[in-house]
Amino acid sequence: MVTDLGPVIRTRPKLAVWKFASCDGCQLTLLDCEDELLGLTERVRIDHFLEMTPAEGADRERAQLDGRGPYDLSLVEGSITTAEDAERIQHVRRISRYLVTIGACATAGGVQALRNFADVDDFLAAVYARPEYIATLETSTPISAHVPVDFELRGCPIDRRQLIEVITAYLAGRRPQISHHSVCFECKRRGTTCITVAHGTPCLGPVTHAGCGAICPAYGRGCYGCFGPSSKPNLRSMVAQLRHDGMSERDVQRVFRTFNAASPEYAPVPDLAAEERQGPPA
Amino acid sequence: MSTDADVHASQPPASDGLVMGKDGMAALVDVLIRRGFTVVGPTARDGAIVLAELRSADELPYGWGVELEAGRYRLRERPDGAAFANAAGPQSWKSFLHPVRVREWSADRVEGELVFTADQDTPPRYAFLGVRPCDLRAIAIQDRVLTGGAYRDSGYEGRRSGALLIVVECTEPGATCFCVSMGTGPAAGPGYDLVMTEVVDEDGHRFWMRSGSQEGAEILAELPTRPADPETRETARAGVTAAADRMGRTMPEADLRELMAGTLDAPRWDDVAGRCLTCGNCTMVCPTCFCTTTEDVTDLTGDHAERWRLWDSCFDLDFSQLHGGPVRASSRSRYRQWMTHKLGTWYDQFGSSGCVGCGRCIVWCPVGIDITEEAAALHDWTQSGTSASASAPEPP
Question: Pfam families in the record, alphabetically (chain A) (predicted)?
Fold first, then answer.
């Protein structure tokens, strides 16, 4: 079957990578795309990416945190934890045509959102000798709490193949093929025997967003939810099962208080864990 | 329960069959490999009896049994050294006949034109060693679904038409098995090339073998066997008969199709929805669930595209995603869709039940939801008298 598509018109869209409160792991995933990196640079102009541009010399201006833009595609890593960043994300949004958040920090607030459940001043006093030098917000919030986001990529860190898929889909003008179902789908698709059923290992797979390829269960370790909640997770049933599989009330609370701690879906977990105090049946 | 109900009674073999010692299993695998088959069978791995390509009979799970419960699977050593005294594992043969991931075609942009290429890989000739009677029926059900209608899955047809089915009758049902209720076992129904019944007693570890096809008979003729003695035949038959009496689960004594159609508003659906994680495990371990999704992928150059077909599940919200949202947004509606299709509307669509009673969905549900328990609860509701008065539909 042959279809005439006419002449191919190609421009190189401009790509920018932005960092907010984060560890850099997600944006470094772009550099980890070793096999695809040269092909990628043929299709997009990587215009703003501090991790791969020199901070000195002729490109100094480009290396400045603000960037000038406009950019066709902005990849945003990190959460909003300072007043300056709350302003800067507005600037990034204004100069970006299509804005994709990459990773748990940008999408859910990250592990630094643990402050949302405590008094940030207590943390500052515990960590810093001179807390008065630190200017920070009381909460860590996802990018979507501040500006409209076109697509959110999950994970801590994000999956390399999913990043390439999002960029490729953008270039083709189609929707990214990113599933929102559970990690169980990925275990079954790769032929991993369920570690909860066969070994009694507590696992968050049934309520966790797919995308990692079910790495942890393939190595006998329970999923700890680094991709955040799947679509409409049944946390009441999951929490009861985790307790059945031997997790204490505190363990249950803690396993949901990691990289996606501030995901709204997880909000009922402490109450649900407390309801299950009776412990595992004999 | 249906016209299938007579299958669990042992079928009279065409002949008295042959007896093969345990050592003959090595010869069987060798003969299959020499004949060009890719031999797939059970082997103990990662704490379960999984299906994998076998290079030698030594890889069979000799001495491994299983302990099954809802949401629980454990390997247990068996002192008798039997290879097939274990019920269904985490996979079924659909992993090979209806694989998780199939590329259907690819397309390339060549000098401004789009050229499509259908995927035409030659499938291996599979020899499935150790197909259980319930799974033999499951294969027949998938045959009907995927090749028995107006739209035939040519890829499935290619993999299936070359497959040799070596059935092992069940003598050790699990606590989650209910093949007798579904009329699919523990004796083998039709469709096998070879059937074996494993016997381990003071007279040794041996297999009672019968052929069901010309090719099966030819393979059997190449194996080290002797005519079947009456004692082996009787012991084998008695083992299968005893298995029928030791089913761990039963379906309620009712017409399941009518039960499903008559309980769509039962409050039990809300109860099970409270437990269901909608994780999709039941559908993926089910040997008859066949649903797939399609993914079109492009590469970075934009000059190459591929269409892939992947297993999907009616428990996935995206499965019924239309404009405006999913058709089955609640877990209640998704669980009900799965169970009523499996036990009820499957008849309307394909002329049989979609359930073979293997019990996999019970074992591999992380929270141990039990389809026989759910069916019993629905049946109880119809008997309780509350169903007739419950004319107001439940909230969706």
Answer: Oxidored_q6
DSSP string, B58-72: GGS-TTEEEEEETTE
For chain A, report the end-to-end CA distance as a whole number of angstroms: 63
- Burial environment of residue B357 by CB neighbours within 10 A (0 to 12, 13 to 18, 19 or more): buried
Placement of tokens 């437990």 in the chain: B275
CB B130 within 8 A of CB B42: yes
- Tokens 């030594």 locate to B58
What interface predicted TM-score (ipTM) does this complex get?
0.91
Among all chains, which residue has been given the structure tokens 């204004």? A94
Burial degree of B329 (CB within 10 A; 0-12, 13-18, 19+): middle
> CA B69 → CA B177, B268, B296, B362, distances in Å?
10, 22, 39, 8
CA distance B81 to B43: 14
Q: Average the pLDDT over each of A122-126, B125-129, B131-135, B271-275 and give the range with the smallest value.
A: A122-126
Amino acid at B385: G
Question: What's the CA gap between A96 and A98, in Å, rounded?
Answer: 6
Express each pLDDT in A30-55 by its tens digit: 999 989 999 999 999 998 898 887 65
Mark which residues 181-220 of A lie under 8 Å from B by CB: 181-182, 184-185, 188-189, 191-194, 196-200, 203, 205-207, 220
Those residues with Cβ within 8 angstroms of residue B9's Cβ, 6 or more apart along the chain or in another chain: B187
Q: CA nearest B200: which of B66, B28, B76, B79? A: B79
Q: Which residues of B touch A193 (CB under 8 A)?
A: 45-48, 50, 90
| DSSP type of residue B49 | E
Instruction: Tell me the C-alpha distance between B237 and A199, whole Å.
Output: 35
Yes or no: say if A103 and A157 are a contact pair by the CB < 8 Å rule.
yes
| B349 pLDDT more than 80 | yes
Q: Are strands B225-227 and B101-110 parallel, antiparallel or unpaired?
A: unpaired
pLDDT at res. A254: 95
User: Quick one: closest CA in A to B311, which residue?
Assistant: A189
State which fold the A14-172 domain adopts.
Answer: Rossmann fold (3.40.50)
pTM of the model: 0.91
Identify the residue among B115, B295, B300 best suited for mutation to test binding to A, counting A beta carbons within 10 A and taking the highest: B300
Q: What is the dihedral of CA A201, A206, A212, A215, to 10 degrees?
A: 20
Secondary structure class of B18 (helix, strand, coil): strand
Q: Which residue of A197, A199, A232 is in closest CB contact with B366?
A: A197
Span between the terminal Cα atoms of chain B, in Å: 30
| pLDDT value of residue B6 | 43
Residues B303-318: what's their mean pLDDT?
Answer: 94
pLDDT at A59 over 60: no
**Domain positions in chain A:** 14-172, 183-275
pLDDT at A224 exceeding the cut of 60: yes
Question: How far is B289 from A50, CA to CA, in rounded Å?
Answer: 49
% of chain A beyond a pLDDT of 70: 89
Cβ–Cβ of B316/A198 closer than 8 Å?
Answer: no
Strand A71-77 and strand B126-131: pairing? unpaired
> How far apart, in whole angstroms, are the C-alpha atoms of residue B277 and residue B307?
30
